[in-house]
Amino acid sequence: MAPSAGAPAPDVCAKTSPAPKAADLRFILRDATDVAHRRLDAGFAAYDLTRRADYLAFLMAMQAAFAPLEAWLDETDPGFLPMDWPQRRRAEALRVDLQGLGIVASEGSSAVPPPTLPADAAPGVLYVLEGSRLGGQVLLRQVLASPDPVVRENARFLRHGEGLRFWPSFSAWLCTRPVSEHEPAISGALCAFALFERTQANR
Question: How far is CA 42 from CA 24, 46, 91, 141, 203, in A?
């Protein structure tokens, strides 16, 4: 997930909108963000989440991206969000986990301002946030295998939505969005990925 040492951080909200190759917005987003997704995954693979220091760094990186992105989604046109958006928010779970690890931050605080995007970019931003739940299941197993009880006891972020099938329901919602929204959705997804990469660059 992180750029190589010394590499410049990616341009947040870079506008790259290739023509769609599929008739489903979910797969259009998958294809358009594949490189960014792989790069991000590679960066986070460097963390050993059984170690408190690495887990703390991981949560701080997540908080630095989730807080501004969720703040932006809270203020955008709800017509571009699933009806259960409020139940999907995870910044508060991150804040509580960080507090359990000794880092106190006020609710919604972030050093990064919310992005400047059009409202119809929201499905793309959500695609990145909701998609992170899938990898989060793998990361949770690492956290729960930690010999450190403080690590194991502060996994609210990775546990969020257990049993609620948030990703399948989001995927179903995304399939109802018109393919004509692909350009702003791709911009939103790339903006979100770039913001996560920027948190990696600051590690």
Answer: 27, 7, 23, 18, 14
Region 54-76 average pLDDT: 94
Phi, then psi, of 17 in degrees rounded to 5: -130, 80
Distances (CA, A) of 53 to 44, 65, 98: 14, 19, 12
What's the confidence (pLDDT) of residue 51? 97
Q: What domains are there in the chain, each with its CATH number?
A: 27-201 (1.20.910.10)
Cα distance between residue 110 and residue 71, in whole Å: 10
DSSP run (H or E) holding 151: helix 149-152
pTM to 2 decimal places: 0.85
Closest listed residue to residue 69, CA positions, set 155, 157, 190, 156: 190
